[in-house]
Here is the input.
Amino acid sequence: MSAKIISFDGWLQSPPGRYLLQWEQERCDELVADIFGYHALQLGLPQLQGLRANRMQQRWLAVNAPLPELPEEAARAALWADAVQLPFGPASLDLVLMPHTLELSVSPHAALREAARVLVPEGRLVICGVNPWSLWGLRQRRMQWYARLGARGPLFIPQAEEFFSPWRLRDWLRLLDLEMESVSLGCFGPASRNALWLDRMGWMDRVGPHGWPVLGAGYVLVAVKRVLGMRLLEPAWRNRRAARGAALPVARREPAETVRMGTKQWSKRV
Here is the structure.
């Protein structure tokens, strides 16, 4: 019997969900504050106000399904759209934020390819996710393994069948002309549903960035879209002034000298 599936939105109200959401909110506020442009889009997860610190004129939140009751501080959706089919033209957005969009998408590759399509050159893509090489990722895989053996019980993080590490995403981004600019990892605490235990292990967040920086449970990745440009250069000879006419030496034919040798005449040049 497979593991019981609960709502991801409901998990965000649990102690580990609030712990992860608070860290991602702080990181997004810091990273998007200095990204400039005209149009920004957040794909899903209204509990995270990832664009509130950004100063673009047009900022939208897109969701792909009706939302349950949300807390008052949650952002309101502006449109319905699926991450694999965005209603925007090519090169029309300056910033795209994908909080756990790849983990919850039916086709992560298509969602990432669609985000690259709508980004303008030098536009930014921000991805939030769970690191599979963390304590949280290990517990998720262990519970999935128990579920295959017939054990009952919910997954630690519901509706997330697979996590994608930042290093794996870096290879995907390169294929789409996206260059990873920075990656931040946090939430070094244990994979526990107990709020008291998470508070007691808060020292791990202070030591983790220095002791085991790659084992953070959550990460926020920033990538920039690079487009190779071409500059036409006018040939140098078009701008060069023509030289004045100069006398060129001309070969002169010298008169021939006749030489008699016996009964024949020969001519030679002098």
Notes: The longest strand covers residues 119-130. The beta strands are 39-43, 58-63, 79-80, 93-99, 119-130, 178-186, 218-225, 256-261, 264-269. The CA atoms of residues 102 and 112 lie 8 Å apart. The chain has one domain: 8-225.
